[in-house]
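INFO  loader      accepted 1 record
INFO  loader      residues=141
INFO  predictor   begin
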Amino acid sequence: MPHPEEMLAILAEICRKDPRFRREAYPFVFEALSVAQKLFKKDEAPPEDRHVTGPQLLEGVKELAGRKFGFLAKTVLNEWGIRRTEDVGEIVFNLIEAGLMGRQESDSRGDFAAGYDFEEAFEREFRLPRSSPPEKSQEEE
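INFO  predictor   done
INFO  writer      dumping tokens
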């Protein structure tokens, strides 16, 4: 992994080439990768066996976004340019092309297609249940 200054320069270049996504999205995807490795018990495997699939990484994104941002998860991700699971795949492949993330021959952008609906994953899950208005007591009637 490059030094922090070098990493910032690489991320700035990625964002220059592909301005769809804010710089903050990239470290988030790296963190989501780590979460996915833990979720799928790959964090303790030998390095060659730590690879996660696109759908597994998407689960890491969902878990991390919910944990970090709660009911604001969709808003934060949207602000960074991530509006659907396919956007996560674009970020991953930008990182691969920059040499910051590895891939297996079978990996493709299609692995991230229609992983889950952002509305369902990040809004409905965190929506508070509607409460009924308090009932009037007999004295109030």
